[in-house]
Design a protein that fits this description.
The protein is built from six helices and six strands, in the order E-H-E-H-E-H-H-E-H-E-E-H. By secondary structure, it is an alpha/beta fold. Strands 1, 2, 3, 4, 5 and 6 form a six-stranded parallel β-sheet that branches. Strand 1, helix 1 and strand 2 form a beta-alpha-beta unit.
Length: about 170
């Protein structure tokens, strides 16, 4: 079976979580990991499981303005024009139910801070016709630029291993 993990990352935290998720999926899946900037150049993924993630910006998915703000926080290059929001908004509905899961990264403090990119991703995936095999998952960073909270990569790998073990993944029926 095949899985694809597509992610958006500004400071490397969400990318690290995506790789940890891929590790957890590899017990059952052949896994491809793509940043959203590469995913836009590929046709709709024909996989048994699509896992999509991004950072939480301003209580939800990033936008051009929030990516511009993030770019000002680092010397590393940050893609401003395309993010998970735009990629999913441009995607075509899936022809038959396909399996998917959503994850995000969000700041750990204060713990009551609302919003989640994962929930926005899940909503968009459902709208496209995907069957979500798990509740959206958030992985925590200590500050806006990171680092990830201790144990989050292990938690992401374990979350993905549970996804891989689920019986509710629908086979690719192309």
């Amino acid at each position: 079976m095949r899985a694809q993990v597509v992610y958006e990352s500004m400071f490397g935290n969400t990318a690290a979580v995506a790789e940890a998720i891929a590790t957890g999926l590899r017990s059952r899946f052949e896994v491809t990991v793509l940043p959203v900037t590469e995913a836009v150049n590929h046709p709709a993924p024909q996989v048994d499981l699509l896992v999509v993630g991004g950072p939480t910006h301003a209580f939800g998915l990033s936008r051009t303005a929030t990516r511009q703000d993030a770019a000002g926080q680092t010397d590393d290059p940050v893609e401003i024009e395309i993010g998970i929001r735009e990629w999913l908004d441009a995607a075509l509905p899936v022809p038959s139910p396909r399996s998917a899961a959503a994850f995000g990264t969000k700041i750990a403090h204060p713990p009551w801070l609302p919003g989640s990119a994962a929930k926005g991703i899940a909503k968009r995936l459902r709208h496209l016709g995907y069957h979500l095999v798990a509740a959206p998952a958030d992985f925590l960073v200590e500050d806006m630029t990171g680092p990830l909270r201790s144990g989050e990569l292990e938690r992401a790998t374990a979350w993905a291993a549970r996804l891989a073990a689920t019986r509710s993944i629908l086979p690719d029926t192309r």
